[in-house]
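Hi support team,

I've been running sequence recovery on a batch of backbones for a student project. Most finish fine, but this one hangs at about 90% for roughly twenty minutes before it completes. I'm not sure whether the input is malformed or the queue is just slow. I've pasted the structure tokens below so you can try to reproduce it. Let me know if you need the job ID as well.

Thanks,
M.K.
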């Protein structure tokens, strides 16, 4: 095939015009004013396809994280000691890079995060995504993906709830956390819960944060949302979700029902006793063994790394399942379930690409 024929053939397969020399910059304002923001239902639909492609090997990605020492932050910020406002909380001062590719697109998400930001009136984290055409790796768009990142993480809630072998007809949920991820979790459960939800108890590190989220959302949700200040209602929960910035477990194992199902989205939030019990009596899983293991910041991975082993090495031998391998977990009714999700990098690619394509449709002349 002659060179010009190769170019013509390749151009037919590109997902953009070669004459577009500059990427579109989609900030939050343009995303909203152009009508390009994805609904919760659209996010779920896009992620359905993402999981199909992940499981059949058509989509792949990796994550790199540079975690900076908290002591250095306090010193450089001019504090002699850790301020009381951050007692029991991880700063999560880090720079993360998530990159992935699928049959049509490739991309890189860069995240900067620090819990201290709230004292400055800033978000804890901001995500910027560079979306590229896969064949040429030319940038198509630079997208503020902060809201999309929360939405794709929140979508794990309805996905994992669909796996839970819960026998009751009206589910009670206990959610730890009241930030953007918690809000996205509630939106996901509202849009696509596998079975009716009666109520959600909401607990945060700061009670005022939980109350504020309840005040802003309670009238728009199809279930009762209740802010609580302690764990006394935890024993009622069929489904427990942790999405906090806590630096230690947020509950004790004896506070849980023995058949409760759990989803962990934060850091070291879950007691080792809970993980060991569920491993013996029920089913433990994660979104991806290698990714959770190498990130080594969540309770499941830390259970192995602190003893000199790794989740990646021992997980398969212990029967720990992966969302990225199969959706058919065949769980026994009434058995406890514990699922840890770190957030697969390629999921961001799918939601950002969908937003970009919606933008092109919305702005087409």
């Amino acid at each position: 095939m002659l060179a010009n024929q190769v170019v013509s053939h390749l151009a037919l397969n590109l997902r953009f015009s070669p004459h577009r020399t500059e990427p579109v910059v989609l900030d939050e304002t343009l995303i909203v004013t152009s009508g390009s923001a994805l609904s919760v239902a659209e996010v779920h639909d896009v992620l359905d396809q993402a999981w199909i492609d992940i499981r059949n090997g058509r989509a792949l990605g990796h994550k790199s994280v540079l975690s900076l020492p908290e002591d250095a932050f306090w010193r450089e910020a001019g504090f002699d000691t850790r301020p009381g406002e951050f007692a029991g909380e991880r700063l999560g001062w880090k720079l993360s890079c998530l990159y992935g590719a699928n049959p049509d697109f490739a991309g890189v998400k860069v995240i900067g995060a620090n819990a201290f930001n709230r004292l400055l009136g800033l978000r804890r984290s901001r995500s910027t995504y560079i979306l590229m055409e896969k064949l040429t790796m030319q940038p198509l768009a630079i997208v503020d993906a902060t809201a999309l990142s929360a939405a794709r993480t929140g979508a794990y809630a309805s996905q994992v709830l669909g796996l839970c072998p819960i026998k009751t007809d009206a589910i009670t949920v206990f959610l730890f956390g009241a930030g953007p991820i918690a809000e996205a979790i509630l939106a996901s459960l509202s849009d696509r819960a596998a079975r009716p939800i009666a109520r959600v108890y909401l607990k945060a590190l700061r009670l005022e944060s939980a109350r504020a989220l309840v005040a802003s959302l309670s009238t728009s949700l199809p279930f009762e949302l209740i802010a609580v200040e302690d764990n006394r209602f935890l024993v009622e929960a069929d489904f427990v979700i942790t999405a906090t910035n806590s630096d230690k477990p947020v509950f004790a194992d004896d506070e849980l029902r023995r058949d409760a199902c759990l989803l962990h989205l934060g850091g070291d939030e879950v007691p080792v006793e809970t993980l060991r019990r569920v491993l013996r009596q029920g089913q433990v899983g994660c979104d991806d063994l290698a990714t959770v293991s190498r990130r080594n910041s969540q309770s499941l991975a830390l259970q192995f790394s602190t003893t000199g082993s790794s989740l990646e090495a021992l997980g398969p031998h212990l029967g720990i399942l992966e969302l990225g391998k199969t959706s058919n977990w065949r769980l026994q009714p009434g058995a406890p379930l514990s699922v840890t999700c770190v957030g697969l990098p390629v999921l961001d690619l799918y939601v950002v690409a969908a937003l970009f394509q919606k933008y092109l449709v919305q702005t087409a002349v």
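--
Follow-up from support: It reproduced on our side and the slowdown came from queue contention, not your input. Residues 345-362 form the longest helix (18 residues). No action needed from you.
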